[in-house]
Structure formats: C-alpha cells, structure tokens
C-alpha cells in the first residue's frame, strides 16, 4: 500500500495537491489523497452529513481539533468527527489520505449514544497489537481505529513479511481450494428502506439491495444470468392493485373471514404500516387450473432442528414436493375488492394469535393480484421465511425477503406460528420480476470465463495441491429459475448454431472446465469435481431448484470421458446414503469413474444419529477413497484466540475410529 501511496505523492511534487482516488469503489465513501509542502496547511470542511478519517502515510506535521493538538512524525490516524473544527499543518512534506464517510440519520443517532467520542488520534507504534492463531507467528495485527468511534467504520492493519503460506504440508496435509464459479453474490437481501441497505447495499433486487458479492459482479452487473424479456407489460410497476384473490388448496370451509384480514403496505419494504380501509369479500368455489406441488414440508427435520433424528425415507421423498392441489379439483377462493393499492409492497395477514390455521397453500400460489380491468399483475412473493436474516423477517419492524427460492413452501395464512425458512401467517407481494439472478454470472459470457480463469490462477498461485469445483451455489435463488438464462450472448449462439439454450450454456461451461484443467495440470496440480447426485438426472427434486442454473445441460459424462477430472466427489443432499447402492444415476456415475480409474470421495450433509454408521459404510467400501464431513459450521466452534473446537460427539467418534482409538 505504501508504494501505491508514494506513486500518488510523486504526482503532486512541487506544491500542494489533492487528488481523488478509489473513485466510486465503495458506496458512500469518498477518498482523496493530499500532499502538502513544508509550511502548507489544510482545513477539512465541516459537514453535518459526513465524518472524516485521515491516514498520515509519510512526512511530518501537526493536527489540531479544538484544544487537542498532536504531532505527526510517523504513520498515524486522525478522526476529528463530524461538525468538528480541525486543521492540518505540514512542518515538512506531508502526505495523507482523507476518507469522507456519508452519514445517515441512523448513524447520527448511533454516534450520539456512544460513550467514546471523537476526536481520536493514534500513531502506528502506539496502536494495540494482537496475534491470531490462524496466522503465522511473524504476523502482527494492529487496531488503528476501534469500532465504537466513527459510525460503520473501523481500521486495522496486518503486518508480515512474505512469503507467508499456511504450512499445511508440514503436518502431512493436502490443501485444496474450493471453487464455486457461480457463487459470486449470495442471495441475501437488505430491505430497501433499512439502515443496513443504506449503509451496505450494492446491487438492487425487488425488495431492497444485496451486499455480499464479488467486486467483479458489482462492476459488471449486466453479466449476471438474465431473465427473458418481452413478456411483462411496460406499466406493470405502476398498476394499482384493485382486487386480490386468496386461494386455499382445497374447498374445505375456513375460519378466515373479513374481520380477521389485515392489509399492510410500504413504499420501501421497511416498517410496513397497516391500511385502514373497507373492502368487500366474495367467497366462491373455483376449479384449480393446474397441479400445485410444494417443495417439501420437512426441511427443518432434515437438518435435525426439531427432534435431532435422521430424516426418514418418507421425509426424504417429501423433498421432491408433495402434491398440494390437483388440476380440476375444487378450491375455496376469497376475492377481496373495493380498494386501490399503489404502494410497491403489500402484506396480507390476520389478527389470529393462536393456531392451528386452516387456510393453506404454497407461498407462490396463495395470492393473485388483479388490476382495475381484472388482469393478473405478475409479481414475486414473500412468506416471512428466508435463508439469511430470517430472524428479522418482521415486516412491522424490518422488511421482507422476496423471491428467495423457498416460496413453494406451504404456509397457513391464519396461523401465526413461525416455521423456519417457511415463514408464518402472512403473504407478501411485490410487482414484477427480477431482471437478473442475484449474483450468479453467466458462463457463456467471455468476460465471465476470463474472470473465472483469473480466480483459478489466484488459487494456484497460493500453492494449493488441487482445486475442487462445484456449480451448486447460493447466488441464484429465485422462485422462478426456468425464466433465467436468456443472456444476449446465449441467444445469439443459439441462433448461430441451432442448438438449444441448455446445450449452448452446457458447452460454454465445459469449455471453461477444459481451460481450468489445462491451467491446473500445467501447474502440476489436480482437478476434482463435485458430481451432483441430486441434480444430474431427469427427475430433479424440487427442493434443489434454487441451487443450480436452470436451462442448462450438465455434461458430466463428457467431463469424465474427456479426462477433465483427476478425482470425483459424489455429492448429495436429497438422497439417502443407500443411493450409492441402488440408484440408477448414482451407479452410472460410479461405474464411469471406476472405468477411468478416478478416486471417489463421498460428500453428504452430516446427520449425527447415523454419521458413524455412514462413515463406516464408506470406509469399508472399496469403491471409495474418502468421506467428507460436511459442513464444518455444524460441528466446529471457533474460540476467541482463533483456535477451534469440535462440538459434536458424533464427529469425535469418527475421529477416534480413524485413529484406531475406537471400533
């Protein structure tokens, strides 16, 4: 960093200069580089809406703020705080960075509550130092600016000398990088009106902004996987909602009546307000126009969050999706009308405080919004569930996650009990569809393949022994995966070759794997791939739709036949362990890998009650070479000193068996 700063300083020799750097790199942050000659001075502007932090990187001078005065003769940090008079004077050539941090009203309120307040000054040599067990002994970390001084800002440093690789090989361990090419921006939404979205939001989706994503995605958002165009009316976003159909999965009478229903709306998907409106309700029996399936009713038990037991065979089959309604069956419909709702976000809920409820359907099939002419308004739904921030899904206090991939869960509108991931007694609606998947990049775009190759090179440069590849990810969650994959480059290639979209995209991904294979082998390393037992089949389970690209071939047979794999991982979430013995697709995978002499490792989500049995089964099966304990968050606990502890007695038992300490 210091070399880069000195390069900037040379641009300002001969007098005072100011130059903006990192332009637009971080939303809400402006960064300027100043160089002052001896005797020069700089008076920072005062602002009610910005706080400033100064990093002095070279030279000598003084800083003053009120009655505080500090000498600068080494690397130092100065934070005067917003609305503070301060001055910087150079007693010799002086260079420094000025960071201006935009403040939201919530930031000002936070600052007023803090006991420790600016001004703050610290020299590098006087900063608190600490070490971490995950870093080498020669690495020194420092706290430059603690987290409780400036809203949403802290600063630290890590000092070491290179090379500083993790020395796993000294302990007889191999190190494999784990690369998920599509995992470049996870589907975590911050509600549009929330302070979190204002502070950290980067790319917009219906309902708010996303933040947890690669910089390449932020800079090239149009290279994400794109939705089809031309099927939604231009005025969709502004059409008032003039009627709502609430649809039950059957025609059985319901306890839900007009007096129990509530309408809540928001302009920014944040802190919804209840509408005080009168409306009419018409109750009818209609014929279901199509079959409806859920994606499961037992995901939480699969993860042992309820009773700690392993998923039953019936529960696993349920992950395929149980039928909720048959086409042609009678269903009960409540049609609400007599209003005009223009706000972008709507929640329908009830005043019931106890269950059980009876008005049940899936989250994507329970509500239809209609305009003044009775036309359906296409939209996305929220059920109160989510993968991230589900605990904050109270629309009255925070906001909702729309189009998050689990909308096909069943829910009961009149039951206030929350079910993890599935939501609770409410249904949210917002007009339109997302133009792109949240953070997953399109494999057919040349710039994306170049970016992926650069990631592979970075992993190889780190000294790994090999690289694992996995296309399953958390960056493309949607309730409508079949509507995506329509990037211009894909459509152009379909037109040029006459191939299907799935074939074009599959060919592009295979081409990337060829390139990656050549790079890995040129470095003398190994390439390993996760073969997805759940997904590489015609009968794909509905619960896995959110994790894979739709409209795409996975040419796994071709990858094996071309010799792109040095090792294979048989990965599955949905199927039971005995699929390794009796499932046609799995047996085909195993046979093809064995024919090529590929070592095979089994990777399945840990289920503690059966873990030891499953481990022994794999260890004693000559077809397999390894067993992956997945995933580590479920059995590792990190300690304050950076070390970690195994918190699962079942995993401990596996370790004892492996070490010969137990049978």
Strand content: 25-35%
Give Rg in angstroms: 29 Å
Overall geometry: globular
Low-pLDDT segments: 1-14, 297-313, 315-319
> How many structural units, i.e. domains?
4
State the end-to-end CA separation: 54 Å
Textual characterization of the structure:
The protein is an alpha+beta fold. It folds into four domains: 2-159, Jelly Rolls; 176-232 and 440-524, no CATH class; 236-432, no CATH class; 566-663, no CATH class. It has 14 helices and 37 strands. The strands form ten sheets. Strands 1, 2, 3, 4, 5, 6, 7 and 8 form an eight-stranded antiparallel sheet that branches. Strands 12-31-32-33-34-35 form a six-stranded parallel sheet. A five-stranded antiparallel sheet has the order 19-18-24-29-27, with no helix packed on it. Helix 7 packs parallel to helix 9 (501-522) and helix 13 runs parallel beside helix 14 (649-658). The radius of gyration is 29 Å and the shape is globular.
């Amino acid at each position: 960093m210091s070399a880069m700063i000195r390069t900037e300083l040379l641009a300002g020799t001969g007098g005072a200069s100011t130059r903006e750097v990192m332009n637009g790199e971080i939303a809400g942050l402006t960064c300027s580089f100043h160089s002052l000659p001896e005797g020069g001075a700089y008076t920072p502007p005062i602002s009610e809406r910005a706080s400033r932090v100064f990093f002095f990187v070279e030279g000598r001078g003084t800083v003053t703020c009120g009655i505080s005065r500090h000498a600068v003769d080494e690397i130092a940090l100065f934070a005067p705080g917003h609305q503070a008079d301060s001055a910087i004077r150079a007693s010799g050539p002086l260079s420094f960075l000025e960071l201006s941090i935009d403040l939201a009203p919530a930031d000002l309120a936070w600052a007023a509550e803090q006991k420790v307040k600016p001004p703050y000054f610290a020299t590098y040599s006087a900063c608190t130092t600490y070490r971490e067990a995950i870093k080498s002994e020669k690495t020194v970390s420092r706290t430059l600016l603690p987290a409780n001084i400036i809203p949403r800002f802290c600063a630290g440093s890590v000092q070491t000398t290179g090379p500083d690789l993790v020395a796993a090989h000294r302990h007889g361990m191999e190190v494999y990088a784990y690369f998920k090419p599509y995992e470049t921006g996870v589907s975590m939404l911050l509600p549009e009106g929330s302070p979190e979205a204002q502070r950290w939001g980067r790319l917009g989706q219906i309902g708010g902004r996303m933040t947890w994503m690669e910089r390449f995605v932020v800079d090239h958002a149009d290279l994400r996987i794109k939705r089809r165009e031309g099927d939604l009316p231009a005025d969709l976003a502004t059409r008032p909602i003039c009627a709502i159909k609430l649809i039950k999965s059957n025609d059985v009478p319901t306890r839900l009546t007009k007096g129990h229903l509530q309408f809540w709306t928001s302009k920014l998907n944040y802190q919804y307000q209840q509408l005080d409106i009168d409306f009419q309700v018409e109750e009818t029996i209609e014929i279901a126009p199509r079959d409806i399936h859920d994606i499961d009713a037992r995901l939480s038990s699969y993860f042992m969050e309820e009773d700690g037991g392993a998923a039953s065979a019936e529960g696993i089959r349920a992950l395929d999706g149980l039928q909720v309604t048959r086409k042609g069956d009678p269903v009960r419909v409540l049609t609400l009308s007599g209003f005009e709702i223009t706000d972008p976000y709507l929640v329908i809920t009830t005043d019931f405080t106890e269950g059980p409820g009876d008005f049940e359907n899936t989250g994507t099939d329970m509500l239809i919004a209609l305009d003044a002419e009775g036309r359906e308004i296409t939209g996305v739904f929220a059920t109160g569930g989510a993968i991230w921030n589900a605990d904050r899904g109270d629309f009255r206090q925070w906001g909702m996650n729309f189009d998050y991939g689990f909308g096909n869960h069943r829910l009961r509108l009149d039951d206030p009990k929350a079910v993890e991931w599935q939501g609770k007694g409410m249904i949210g609606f917002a007009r339109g569809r997302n133009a792109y998947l949240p953070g997953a990049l399109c494999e057919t775009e040349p710039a994306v393949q170049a970016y992926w190759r650069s990631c592979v090179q970075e992993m190889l440069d780190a000294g790994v022994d090999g690289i694992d590849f996995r296309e399953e990810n958390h960056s493309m969650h949607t309730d409508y995966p079949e509507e995506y994959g329509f990037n211009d480059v894909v459509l152009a290639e379909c037109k040029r070759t006459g191939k299907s979209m799935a074939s074009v995209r599959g060919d592009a991904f295979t081409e990337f794997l060829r390139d990656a294979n050549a790079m890995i082998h040129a470095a003398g390393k190994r390439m390993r791939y996760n073969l997805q037992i759940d997904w590489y089949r015609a009968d794909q389970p509905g619960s896995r739709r959110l994790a894979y690209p739709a409209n795409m071939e996975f040419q796994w047979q071709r990858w094996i036949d071309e010799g792109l794999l040095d090792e294979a991982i048989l990965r599955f979430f949905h199927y039971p362990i005995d699929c390794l013995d009796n499932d046609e697709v799995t047996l085909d995978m195993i046979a093809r890998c064995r024919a090529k002499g590929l070592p095979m490792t089994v990777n399945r989500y840990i289920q503690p009650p059966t873990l030891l049995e499953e481990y022994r089964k794999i260890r004693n099966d000559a077809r397999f070479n390894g067993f992956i304990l997945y995933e580590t968050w479920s059995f590792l606990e990190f300690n304050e000193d950076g070390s970690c502890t195994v918190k699962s007695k079942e995993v401990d038992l596996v370790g004892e068996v492996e070490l010969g300490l137990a049978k």
